[in-house]
């Protein structure tokens, strides 16, 4: 049997996990909002029309931030359409997804619901068709105590205290030609800078995220970030990254190594941000907000041109397999390994639309396979990320050449002393023994081993079999002389919680 | 007597005439709309306030498309001012023509009237002072069936079914420094691209026209088109051309050769469009929309600075001569010769404002001289344009050097087999014999010969003598052995319909 | 005792003083408007809520123009907020000064008040967050007689006749990164050009001021002006200059020589404007509008970040010393010396905010030290500015090297023949004898000598001692054989009115 090894020593750290690494994303797209989180007629609906069953599953994940309301949607959005008495709200053509937007959920409802589930909103402003004035007014509406036009309107609309939203996206994917109001890097950088400046005047306590590239294959990747950060450096806190991974069935080995791609993107953006910092003689560092990521069967999507006007149509409701869940776990491991610079990450999206949670109108809600590594890492993957210097065998992949079969990271909880190791075995056919050197933390004596794997790696959960795939508890792990070996099943995601 | 010759052979074709080549243009300028097509108190007014006498003359021309509402006017226009109850519509300063705009006619009234006369509207959006949002809202108002804010407003305003306007201009003459919200080529190209993208999302079935140069003498002519098409190529269908010809009395020979200038412009824009196609590796071809052309006594116009605030003032109400009508006929011949790429052309404008139709408030409407070649070619100039390879004598001109005295084209109606030859004799003093070789179409045996000419080439029509100048029927033409010779009077426009 | 000399000869002229050189500035900032010029509950308030005591002091200065409503304020301003019934006007966040703007004073109230004090408004449009449409609508509101939407709204709001505002600023300090909606030179130049064009169409009789640099130390100083004027030359009349002088106590000699700096800026901008004129083959000359200048204890101001939301907070209410007043007099002398090109200048600001007038809510209003040279020069410094070729001793300064101790100019009133000499003695410790050669104007026989100086050069006026510092009348001056010598006290500003 093959072996891989890693060393756990709290003296060697990458950085503290920003809990916002476990964020998610709620876009007005498909059925994420309507019949996703919100469905007034649903048996489980609360007084505000939000589904209790879905909210419960959200609480299980406990995403610290929820990006809202888009996504491509926001680039044509009038936020004012979503406030005030519901019967007066206009129905709009959402040009991003060619859907009908009834505006029954807006910033007030969303923010309150997010807070009820324990999440903070991460609000995006429209820099596609709008600019400074719409952004500053929205921020006045959400964050100003009162006594002004927009803050008094919020009060009149039933929210006496400010929503006090701290995290804001300066538009969405403006580098993409598909975006309503797409911009060149310079056009966007200038608009983002001036919008950021005005927003900081409204509320200097906010954090701002500038749009980076929509994905690594954009022809402007890298140069976009350099130009945008040159124009906005001192006015923003984060630069965004987006990446989706398509489970091409004929090359599963490459798909399992998606984290390699994600890390390359992170490292490239860090390099660009630090380059701009050096050239501009700036003091602070720009951090990374990986605010759209997931597995997405993108090749199954016909594109915006395939869509026709409908209210909350079924869009990209991918049904995830065990393989997909292992990849999601691996992507989160990659993000944790860059916790020193990646401060925010949002799995896209929360419900139905390539979501960890699925729901049926009037029917049940359930956990997809990807829900499990995501929820478990969100709950247990907090603390200091350690440098673990893993060694072990590699496997060949079409896309990336030799890639380690073991993909792992470890998190140290300074208070309790507990260490949690997250590990993926990329070997599709054989288990892998992971040898842990724990001599630097002699207090650790034993641990629980939870894993996600299946005889049928393409197995999925759905309305009929919502629990077909769930994490399994493996034999308890016992440390001896500061060492322990754990067997990771073939094609598996694993969590080993050592105390 | 001098002779010129041409050969008619349906095997040699330039292309099919797009009927939209006979379009016209209704701008909110001077008295084109108010007391032109629209005058509620007029004895002939229909229930909607449109003049019946003018409508009848429009029907005689049968322009397949009518560009609306500008022209320079559109670059400062709020289309929302022209919808809803008339008593609530604001009076605005029209900065283009320094006129007062009462907004009593708007998109609803115009579109319905155009359809009643058998025309399609060719609607322009304001890219001078406005952008994406105003354009997409207008398109939603006119073309979306219902169930959304703007489409329901159209329904509430009395139009339950969509106007379904298919042809749209992305602004007007934005290359002109006189334009409200004038733009550089790059500024315009970017705005046009993003507006086009959003509009296509609202309705993917529309055709879009990007602004080309306002005339050939613009310092940016050519480079403007190249930049604009580089930014918009895949998002637009047509590029516009505008050209007016001033009848300088001291050089009538050059004026009669205006078509040479028009063709140079067409060929230059074709070259530019195909250059951008090659560089961008594009598949489709961009076609030409010659959406403002006419004879215009421009030297008599004092410019915008000469104007002062008035409601529908008398602006550039040129009274056209026989010479002007011959030139108009020649310009249409030039357009037909480029029917492979010129798909749309709009004589500017329809009524009163350098229009083929004139009307007096409370008084009569009549046909100007230019009405006749325009109306006859619109009705009979359809089918396949043939390559006719004319030969014959030339005449010297100040502006263009040697120019053929014969300007001609031929159109073949595949169904009936009829061939119509349009021909201008540019010789001001002598008739010209046109020798037609018809051996390739042996079915043609005879034809009617209609011509416009006069002993006094400066003769005009006006309210007192509305029919001073009309087409004359000349002796019937008889084909013998596939040949026939037709005498074209000095300084004349001719139509020979052979069957 | 040291001597300096100058020659008065009306044959040698610089140019006629444009009275607008003595303009001032009313910004919605701090307490300039509210509790400054406007305070409805004040015992002296007139029927419109404006303070009578302040208005009286304004009338004493008689500033021919009053720039309004900003300054930085205007770059986020919606002018529509300030019209109509006061109870409907929204309270806004003013992002420039992080203050609450109640909009109780707007364009109607301000214009009427300015006219009552004998001043003309110099209105600024918002080119920070807004553009062409907002500007043209405002101009239609203020200047169009009636019969249109905006002009009729003005009439409905109680002003039947147009305000007829002739002087307009195209935005404010758009070169400053602190500005809401800051722009690059090209961005601003383009927007200013298109806004100017539309505004001129609304009212061709207006004069327009384009934004120059916010101060000489801006990294874009010079190149900004060149680019902006290249884009706007034929569409604007003036280019603006702003400069404030900080009374650094440890280097009073340099501070007293501030006029040297002001003149360098004027000369640099003249050079740039004339360079653009030459390159562009333009005919007219662009004049200078020095529309923000004053002494300002800028180092005492914590910056915008130090501010928090409040209604008319106490902002930069500097208390001016005798030294400051002497410098203000010297700066006005510098401006007069460039009367050939500087046609407008605005001391910033009129009341409370670094103002010559101070007022307390519910309390008194008084004249600061700087009020005196400003008011006296405004009243007496009209006519033809003469070239006087002064000679005399110099003093060393840290900032400018050797600087003449005498700073002087002379103004000739062609009607009365009177000559007024304004002179500053920069020597802090010794008087300076000024020898006047008046042989070219034999009619001048005697004069009054008024001076501002004090044993304590740091003496100030305040609520307790509003008249601690006032001008003093010195012994009458008598001309003999066309010559007279006048003793200028140490560190003094002087006015010698010869008849």
Automatic annotation (TrEMBL), chains A, B, C:
InterPro entries cross-referenced by the UniProt entry: Alpha-L-AF_C, ASD1_cat, GH, Glyco_hydro_b
A Pfam family annotated for this UniProt entry: Alpha-L-AF_C
GO terms classed as biological process: L-arabinose metabolic process; polysaccharide catabolic process
Domain Alpha-L-arabinofuranosidase C-terminal, chain residue ranges per copy: 291-492
Superkingdom as given in the UniProt entry: Bacteria
Catalytic activity field: Hydrolysis of terminal non-reducing alpha-L-arabinofuranoside residues in alpha-L-arabinosides
Molecular-function GO terms, alphabetical: alpha-L-arabinofuranosidase activity
Family in the record: Belongs to the glycosyl hydrolase 51 family.
Subunit structure: Homohexamer; trimer of dimers.
The name this protein goes by in its record: non-reducing end alpha-L-arabinofuranosidase
